[in-house]
Task: inverse folding
């Protein structure tokens, strides 16, 4: 979430509902990473627009819904391309895509949605990517280059053969860090320390990298520090013992121990949008009219949390007896 993001385009980029798209190509990008290209099965109507940093929801077999960042240029509305790393330790989406999804399959695609937008203005941009975190960052780098803005990219991989999308990254601005060749991890603290005071900093990668980045950038203006997480930073709020009141109908719905707000609403027959159900995609963001949420998402900034005017109902709870939601 970023209050300074390019507002006109960002608002346009928030897609709702799903489209049934055809998987038209799978390409090798690096060891363990494939690019998946989706197009309309019929007709050539442009796909819904998106901005660099956006992701789509892929509805896979067995009810799996997974979020993947778009890597193709936003100007090309003929297709969506996502990069997926096969990760046997993850929740199953990437393994399914690598091992079972075939060209010619029809896939429900939701979004696009963007929680990792480029800030407006002409401040220099420092991009930091680790592993598969390069997918949104590559798209952002392409936009910055097209706009003639000042930027640099630090891209960290464990081995050279794991580096994806190098062909679309401008070598002049890209610093590739190969752990195995340098004998250590990317020195994120030094990069952040060297960044000009007003620079916009973006980081996407594994959790330890993001934690190091946030620690290094903790003294900077929070509006200049942007992260995109693929995994949740906090457990779901499952304590229950409070009530959610829906402003439109004035219905009061109890949230029991072991339930999220989303669970309780669904059980009561209330239809609400949700996707990741882990607090990382933003689909379930809901306005809070009264009460204090127990924020557990990985999206809202410290300032946004402190305002307590929105929350992710798939993961966050309540710090009092009642929440009044704009539903
Ligand atoms: S459904 Fe993804 S943040 Fe709640």
Result:
């Amino acid at each position: 979430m970023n209050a300074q993001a390019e507002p006109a385009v960002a608002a346009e980029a928030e897609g709702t509902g799903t489209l049934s798209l055809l998987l038209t190509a799978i390409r090798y990008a690096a060891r363990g990473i494939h690019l998946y290209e989706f197009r309309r099965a019929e007709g050539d109507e442009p796909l819904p627009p998106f901005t660099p940093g956006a992701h789509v929801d892929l509805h896979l077999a067995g009810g799996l819904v997974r979020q993947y960042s778009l890597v193709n240029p936003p100007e090309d509305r003929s297709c969506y391309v996502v990069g997926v790393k096969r990760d046997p330790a993850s929740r199953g989406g990437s393994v399914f895509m690598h091992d079972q999804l075939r060209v010619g399959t029809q896939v429900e695609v939701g979004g696009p949605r963007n929680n990792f937008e480029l800030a407006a203005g002409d401040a220099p941009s420092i991009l930091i990517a680790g592993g598969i975190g390069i997918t949104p960052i590559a798209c952002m780098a392409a936009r910055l280059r097209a706009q003639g803005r000042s930027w640099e990219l630090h891209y960290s991989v464990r081995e050279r053969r794991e580096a994806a999308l190098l062909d679309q990254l401008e070598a002049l601005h890209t610093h590739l860090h190969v752990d195995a060749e340098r004998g250590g991890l990317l020195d994120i603290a030094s990069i952040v320390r060297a960044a000009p005071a007003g620079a916009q900093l973006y980081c996407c990668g594994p959790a330890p990298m993001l934690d190091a980045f946030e620690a290094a950038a903790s003294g900077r203006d929070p509006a200049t520090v942007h992260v995109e997480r693929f995994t949740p930073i906090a457990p779901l709020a499952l304590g229950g013992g409070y009530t959610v009141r829906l402003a439109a109908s004035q219905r009061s719905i109890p949230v029991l121990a072991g339930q999220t707000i989303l669970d309780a609403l669904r059980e009561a027959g209330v239809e609400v949008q949700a996707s990741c159900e882990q607090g990382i995609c933003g689909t379930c963001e809901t306005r809070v009219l009264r009460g204090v949420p127990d924020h557990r998402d990985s999206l809202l900034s410290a300032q946004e949390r402190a305002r307590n005017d929105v929350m992710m109902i798939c993961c966050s709870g309540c710090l009092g007896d009642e929440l009044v939601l704009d539903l």
